[in-house]
Amino acid sequence: MKRRIITIAGTLLLPGILLSIIWLFGANSVIRAGSFDVCASCTYTTINAAVTDFVNVLDGSTINVGPGIYTETVVLTRSMTIQGQGIDVTIIDGDNSGSVFEISDDSAVTVTIKDITIQNGSSADGGGGVYNNGVLTIINSVIKDNDGQCDDGGGILNFSSLTLQDVVITGNSAASGGGIVNEDVLIANNITVTLNTANDSGCGSWVATGGGIDNSGTAIIANSVVSTNTAVLDGGGIENDRVITISLSTISNNTTQEDGGGVDNAIAGTMLVMSNTIRNNNAVSGGGFNNEGVLTLTASTINGNKAQGGNGGGVRNLNGGAFTAVNSTISGNSASESGGIHNEGVGATAVLRSSTIYNNSGFFSSGINNMTGTVTLSNTIVIHLSSSAACYGSGIISDGSNLDSDGSCGLGAGELSNVTDPKLGPLQDNGGPTWTHALLLASPAIDAATGCETTDQRGVARPVGNTCDIGAYETTQYDVYLPVVIK
Looking at the structure, do residues 345 and 447 belong to the same domain, yes or no? Predict the structure, then answer.
């Protein structure tokens, strides 16, 4: 009987306990961290109204933003997902009154933005479109026509952790990093950075570098396009001052009034470029690349770049810079002095392995100009088609199995020097992620290399045949001689 009385008493007390919990935490507490709608006829008519409702909208909630143009600037101090309905449907317009999105200075704040266009932000502190101090992921969105004024990052200024997936960053401007400035960690896949500008006009001593991207942190970029950006100073496409890896991407049609039309890799910069195309960029010097740091190029093509009024149409390496090209093609670049590669400065080193330097043009040299420093060649083709020499200057070292067209590269005994017709095909798609010059039948470069790479530029295993081929391309075609049978 006593046990039953206790049970009944417990049952009588339970409603009171529940009422106390509801009073303490609120009747809607179990659904606060959920999904909330923003639209013209919804309870929340602006994003700000939803994200600042600390009573009903808890951390981790999803804010579903309906179709329309929302004119506001949003400060996010808590973890949230901002979900739009599509880049042409949900548009957040900053009305030039600040950063469109600002993420709190707290590494515990995790924000995801999806399916939205972010436009017309303008901030004197930089980050006209997005100013990030948290952990931010942006997916399938457009960031356009924002202004960082006389500061960094017209489109995005990142001081913490930023992940971009399927994002277009276009038409933004700032004193540096017209599209993106990264000061910490950036991971980007399938992004397009185009038509952005770094212009410090009227900004005093600010440095206008990185028309598309200015990196002072750690960046990993893949499957992306950096195109048609402009910088007043260095790095029309990309300015790198720390560590960056770029793969399976295209850097094209960028322009600077100084050095590094495609990319400027500064003294403190370390850059790894894998299976990329760098083409049709323009600068005074270093049309494709201007390098003073550590630049490693693998399975990539540099073509059609121009250094108008300077040197290094394809690559300029100077002042202690370390440039390495493996299984790569440098073709069709031009400059006032040295069309393909210009190497200059105490401690400047360039190493070319299993690469093809072809059809570049410059006054002193079409292929390689070594003013000071050293250039080391192995299993590499250097061909001139213009009136200037394939190579110019002392300090060019052959590690064997090279081929030049005029004897100017200082090749050793047993190497292929003065080969006037190397039998190379045009620069075109021969398979693989980047374009190459195929070795035509009977090319003297076929089976003429030793100690080569395990694959060619396209990823074809080496060797095909008895030994490896010289240059970036390993041929898979051979003349076949069949016996003649006479009956």
Answer: yes
pLDDT > 70: percent of the chain: 91
Return d(Cα 400, Cα 403) in angstroms, integer: 9
> 230 and 255 in contact (C-beta within 8 Å)?
yes
292-319: pLDDT as tens digits: 999 999 999 999 999 998 899 999 999 9
Domain that holds residue 178: 32-211
Q: Is 193 helix (H, G, I), strand (E, B) or coil?
A: strand
Q: Answer whether 436's CB lies under 8 Å from 473's CB.
A: yes
pTM, full prediction: 0.91
Q: Which of 120, 137, 124 is nearest to 69 (CA)?
A: 120
CATH label of the domain that carries residue 204:
2.160.20.10
Which residue, 444, 457, 460, 346, is CA-closest to 404?
A: 444
Question: Per the domain annotation, does 221 fall within a domain?
Answer: no
Q: Provide the β-strand partners of residue 222.
A: 189, 247
pLDDT at 203: 86
**Are residues 17 and 74 both part of a single domain?**
no
Residue 146 has pLDDT above 90, yes or no: yes
Element at 117 (helix H, strand E): strand 117-119
